[in-house]
Structures are given as C-alpha cells and as structure tokens.
What we know:
CATH architecture of the largest domain in chain B: Up-down Bundle
Strand content of chain A: 15-25%
Radius of gyration of chain A: 25 Å
Low-confidence stretches of chain A: 1-12, 136-142
CATH topology of the largest domain in chain B: Formate dehydrogenase/DMSO reductase fold
CATH architecture of the largest domain in chain A: 2-Layer Sandwich
Number of domains of chain B: 2
Number of helices of chain A: 10
Helix content of chain B: over 70%
Low-confidence stretches of chain B: none
Radius of gyration of chain B: 21 Å
Order of helices and strands of chain B: HHHHHHHHHHHHHHH
Structural class of chain A: alpha+beta
Number of strands of chain B: 0
Oligomer: heterodimer
Strand content of chain B: under 5%
Distance between the termini of chain A: 102 Å
Number of strands of chain A: 12
Mean pLDDT of chain A: 88
Mean pLDDT of chain B: 91
Strand order of the largest sheet of chain A: 10-2-12-11
Largest sheet of chain A: 4 strands, mixed
CATH class of the largest domain in chain B: Mainly Alpha
Structural class of chain B: mainly alpha
Amino acid sequence: MDQKKNRDIHSRHIHRRTFLKGAALGLASMALPFGTADASVWEAFFQKHYREMSADDKRDVILRMEKEYAKAYDTKFNIKTTKPTPGVNFGYGLDVSRCIGCRRCVYACVNENNQSRDPQMHWITVLEFKKGERWVNVFEEAKKHYNPETVPEEGHFYLPVQCQQCENPPCVKVCPTQATWKEPDGIVVVDYNWCIGCRYCMAACPYGARRFNWAKPRVSKEELNPETHYLGNRPRYKGVVEKCTFCIQRTRENPGRYPACVEICPVGARKFGNLLDPKSEIRYCIENKRVFRLKEDLNTLPQFYYFFAS
Amino acid sequence: MKELSGHIRENIAGSNRIFYVYCFILLVIAVVGLSQAVKSLAFGHGHSTMSDMVPWGMYISGLAFFIGCSAGATMVGLLIHGFGREDYHPVGTRAILLALLSIFGAMNCVMMDVGNPFRAMKIPFLLRNETSMFFISSSSYMGFMTILGAELFMTIKITRGKASSRDKLLAKLLAIVAVPYALVVVHSFTGTIFGVVKAREMWNTPLLPIHFVTSALASGFALVILVTVITSWIHNKELVSMDTFNHMGFLLLFFLIATVFIDVFDYIILSYSATEEGMETWHLLTGRYLVTFLINMGGLFSALTIVAFKKGRTPRGLLYATSITLLAIVAYRINIISVGQLVPLYPELGELEYIPNIHEVAPFIGLVALLMFIYAVLTKVLPLEDKVHASHT
C-alpha cells in the first residue's frame, strides 16, 4: 500500500527542468498573436521599424499590406513609400482673418485620408471664438459644436486646429516605441504597425491633434481613397493613433500637390509650402504678415503659422 | 522540491470550506469582470468613456495606485535585513507577495489600457525609445519583478531553514538593492510619466516624482499593515507583537507627513495660479472633483491624526488608519489622472467629462478579485514564516 502511494506521488512529480520548459513555452505563447496566426500575422508581428527597412524589406511589407487591404476592403490599393525631398521643410500658414468656419477642410481631409466614418474621426477641429473675449471668461459658455444657419457668424472668428508638426514635438519624445517620429521634411508621422496604442502621445500633445481608433475604423468601399502612403492615409487599425500628415501622399509627389484642406478652402485662408524656399508663399506670409504660433510658451516650435492678412 | 510539494498538498488538504467558498467567489468575480477586458481586446475601447481629449482613464489611475502599493515590501525588506528588525520577519514573505501582485496588477492595467497589448509585450525587447518615461518605467517594472521574485525565493528558502549563509547574504543584498531601485527607478519614473507632460498643468511639476515616492511608501506600507492586521484577526493570533504594530504606525505617520507636506504646498501654489489652466485645475478640484479632493486630503489628515497617537497605533486603530490611507491615495490617483486631463487644451472645446462606466469598472474589479484570489492561494500553499514557526513550536 505504501509502495503504491509512493509510486503515485512520483508519477505526479514534475522535474524542475520540465516545469521551466513548460513555463517558458507557456509565457512565450502568451506573447504571440493567436486565432488567425498565418504567415502574414507573424511577418507583421516581427516587422522591422520603418526607418530600418531596406528597399527589399519595404517592398515585401508593401506587397503584404496591399494584399491584406485588398482582401479587407475589396479594393486595389497603391501604398507609396516616397521619401522626403532634400532641401524641403514643409510649413503651413492659416489666415485667421479669412477663415469663415465652413469646415470644408475637415471633410476634404476625411475623404482624402480615409478617416473612419463610423465611428467618425476628424483630424481637423475648427474652433469658434467670440471676438473680444478673453479665453478664461468663456469656459462655462463655450460650445463644442457650433452650428449656425450660415457662417461666418456675426461677432465670431474661427481657428482651425490640426497637427502643428512641431519642430520640437513632445509626442515623439514620449512615445515608448518610436512609432512616431519627425521626418526630414518636417512631417511628424506615425507607423500604425508599431503603435501599441498607449495614447501617451495624445496626453502629451498640447494641441489635442492626435486621434485614437477606439473601435475598428470603417470606411465604405465607395468612399475609399486607394492612393496612399505607408506613413499617411493607408487604412488604419483598431487601437492605433493617427493624425494629420500634411497629406504626405500628395505633398511628397513630384510635382507635389497641395494638402486636401488647402485645395478645398473656398476663401484661400490656407497656405502651404517649403519653408526653405525664400520665394515660397509661406515664407512671404511669415516675413510680411503678423504671424503667431499656438502655445509658443511651450517651446514646441510649431511649423504651423497663424496670421492676420487684413 | 519534494518536501515543498508535500507541504503544498498538506496545506490544501487542511483548508476549510470557507476558504474554498471565498476563493470561488473571487474567481467568479474575476472571470465576469475580466471578460469585459476580453471584449475590449476584441472590439476596442469604443464602449468606454475615454475620448480623444481624455485619452487616459481608470486603468492608468489603477497603474499609478498598484505601482505605489508595491513599495511596502521594500520597506519591510529593508527593516528586516538593513536594520535587523527581526520582529518584522513574520510579514516578510507576505509583503513580497503583495508587492509582486501589485506590480502584476499594474502591468495588467497597462495591458488592459493599450490598444495593442500583444505588440506592447515586445517592450523592451524589440520596441524601445529611451526618451520615453513610459518605456523607462514599464521596463523598470520587469526589473523590479525580477528582484522581488529572487527575494521571494530566498525568503522561502530561509523560512524553510534550507538557506546557506551565502543565500542569507544574497537575500540581504537583494532587500537593500530593492529600496533605491524601487524609490529612484520605479516610483520616481512612474511619477515622471506625468511630470514631463508640459501640456497638462496639474502634471507638469518636478514635485510629482517625489510625491509618487512618498505616496507609494504610504500606500504600500499601509497595505502591508492592513494585511497584517486582517491576517492576525483571521488566524486569531497576533502576527507581530504590539511593539511592532506601534513601530509600523510610527513609520506610516512619517510617510503620511511627507505626502501631506507635498500635497498641501502643491495645492496652495496651485490655488494662487494666474494662468487659465491653473485656475481651471483649481476650479475643477474644488468643484466637480470636490468629493475626491476631500477624500484625498481629508483622508490623509484623518489617518495622520489616528497614527499620531499611541492609542491609534493598535491593530484596531491601524485598521482604520490604513484603510483611510488607501482610500485617500486612490482618490489622489483618480484626481491626478482625471483632473489633469479635464482642463481643456482650448477653451472652445468646452467642458470635458470623464466618468468611468461599467465597461471600465468591471475589468478593474475583476483584476482586484484575481489578485486577491492569487494572494489567498499563494499564502495558503507557500511556507510562510508564521505557519512554519507555528508548526515548529
């Protein structure tokens, strides 16, 4: 009887090495995606950082993504990886005296950049201010969504806000994974395949310019823009952060195109160009108008200038 | 190993029905609560009340609270090994377990909060940004877990009388190393996550890392005392002597004074702020968040008053003082995260709102239940100092 009891105990005894092996395998399996764990999931999981990818790596990644997107959206996508042009540093100007608050820029941006329609996402927010009032006095009566019959409303002015593409961006410093960085042409970009969705960049952004995909973004097939850039308007995933990229898929082309918001503005309030080109319109505005930048005291050095032309 | 597994089996066999019922209830709460976290994992945080303007919610408050609770073990370890206070020995293993579970809880809060938890597991191995306080602090948690795990292993060895003199020296070294590591690396950098954010008036202060250290010591040590008192009552015998309870109360008093000192002057300066953001922060604290503000400050002052008197440093007094302390620190964590973000970045964004809903509260309660379940099982099966001592005598 005693022998039988001893044998039972021994049969249940796990050796330390076996236990450690099992525990290591178990922990490793927890760290890996499961469910649809086909080859592309693994490739995506162990994908290199965009800035460390060789031309071949980029080609493979783009091919994989184009396939994935084609399957998910039933549309053929073209994902570009156009590099920044040397000698270019993009800057943006906004004439506050001209803006009428029509929000055409908001929806042009949505259409161009494949922003989610459900839940709705806007990279540009247009703020309505009462003329002559100090900010501190309007806390209690401020309206988040102004909706008058016609714009501009009497006695008001408008201030569209989007990513300020700071020269000293707090969002880049705080990102734990380097999923967001500043490109040589001044655009702050996000790699949606590296973002862990911690939203530290959103908490750190003084301009409230970043958006999080709280649920799976939805864009219908008819509304999709298939001309995309890896760092810009390619379809995003649930749980990642996104933001304005100065329409990187347009502005980095040769010849470059204006961002969608600049193109659509009916009153010409939006200016865009190369800050390093002394003959550019944006340089003219900066040198000849009364320009200001938002929250200059924070030393984020936005490349987004507001001015009053008249 | 064989002896340890025998000990585990013996303890499980010796458990009464109440223990099993208690564990079953905790497990049910954990499963129900955490199923909401699985839902978030599958469908995103869309059903929560967090928003683009208030990107951090209850989980980040939970992270800050749980990390703070892990400080208790380092203090107990230092008292035993650094200052030779052998009277703290009966709570040594329990304190380490509490710290390990607190960090486990904190890391789970992060995992429940992020949009891509599987990708986040690559930190710090494949994903890293050395300028990010989030990266530094989350990496430091792994180091802290390793130190505490090694400390636990050594403490169990010592308790079972199997430790060599080299093991004892190693245990001493670990306990001493854990203190600067916890205070300088873990808690300070957790505070720095918020302190470096210039965009948020309430966060952007060099006082925050120091405050996180003092409040961590207060909440961590309060948790150890609370568990000691409750365990003593459950087992119907004092786990430590009355002198030790008195000493514990004294230490808690010291940590509370440090926390209150920083809090009071921080709030006085904030109340005089002339910036719009500063005024709005104060307006929120004394308006919509007055209840949590009062629980925080009132709780700290009440707990401080209780432990300031010798009568308050008895098990009953400590039960009240530590419970109030923990509640006050929870309120502080809620305030710092919520109020910090509720000041609009632009006034025209209007009044921001954040009240966690059931989809956020349920996983949090589930996590707490899971931690309590693991603690109950581990304290049952592990050879703790008080049990081994009792079986020898």
